[in-house]
Amino acid sequence: MTELTPACPEFELIFLGCGTSTGVPMIGCDCVVCQSEDPRNQRTRPSVLLRTPRGNILIDTSPEMRLQLLREKAGPVHAILYTHGHADHLFGLDDSRLFARALGGKPVPVYCETEVETLIRTVFSYAFVEETKRFPSGGVPRLTLTNIEPFKPFDVIGYEVIPMRLDHGKFKVLGFRFGDLAYCTDVSRIPDESFALLQGLEVLVIDALRFEKHPTHFSLAEALAVIEKLQPRQAFLTHMSHSFDYHAVSANLPPNVQMAYDGLRVGWSGIQPNLIVSLDNPVSDVVNL
Ligand SMILES: [Zn+2]
Ligand SMILES: [Zn+2]
Ligand SMILES: [Zn+2]
Hints:
The protein is α/β, with parallel strands linked by helices. The protein has one domain (11-265): Metallo-beta-lactamase, Chain A (4-Layer Sandwich). 21% of the residues lie in helices and 25% in strands. The protein contains 10 helices and 14 strands. The protein has helices spanning 32-35, 65-72, 87-90, 99-102, 114-123, 130-133, 192-196, 220-230, 246-250, 275-280, and strands spanning 11-17, 47-52, 55-59, 79-81, 108-112, 143-147, 154-156, 159-168, 171-178, 181-184, 203-207, 234-238, 257-259, 265-268. A 7-stranded mixed beta sheet has the order 6-5-4-3-2-1-14. A 7-stranded mixed beta sheet has the order 7-8-9-10-11-12-13. Helix 9 (246-250) links the parallel strand 12 and strand 13 (257-259). The longest helix is centred in the C-terminal third of the chain and has 11 residues, at 220-230. It is globular. The two termini are 24 Å apart. Residues 21, 46, 86, 88-89, 186, 239 line the site of one zinc ion. One zinc ion (ZN) is lined by residues 26, 29, 31, 33-34, 242.
């Protein structure tokens, strides 16, 4: 249990999933971790939910999104942000069909890079054809897609979010900073410009796939080296494979580093509302949680 978790924090980070793209256990694997009955060794695909007084912000829609949100009894989702469009981060999007209902029938705001929008419009093409617009609410996802770019802050339900470029092998993905919390999954290199934006963090969530080096993800040693340089108050490892037994690896981590596990909740001090946006364009759609 982290000391950052007060009883009922106003701002909460919930790890919906902290596993790599295969999930843990892996189908067909009989290793000790995959056979473990410890829930901290059972990792669904990677996604987090940020609970705020203004609503719930979902980062990525993993293939287990529906089960993850039900498990956490998280209530409605008010906005979706995408780090990138790989299947383990995207393919649960169909289950967002019911999100619009919770928003009074309004489309769900989705923030992603143009490349991810193209993927969404391809994979979920049925959600964008004229015919399905006549379907009753809940038939297909109803989404408003807004393109974002690295290093250009944008507004999500009245909060400023800073997107930054991360290298994921040859792929380009986004990390996000919300006040003093940053989420950096699927990363094998942090460009200098992004490194500068990760200073002074209270909470850093960072990719750590396995012990050995990997072309598209940080290894444990690489993630720890980044944490050592950035010195966040607390760091959490995510996108983890079956290489890591929760207790064995946790026992050897520095005091400010923890392995995430599905369902872990971390309170943090939150982010100030984006006052410029609030004054010009009051957030009228805030839905009580
Ligand atoms: Zn991934
Ligand atoms: Zn295994
Ligand atoms: Zn990926």
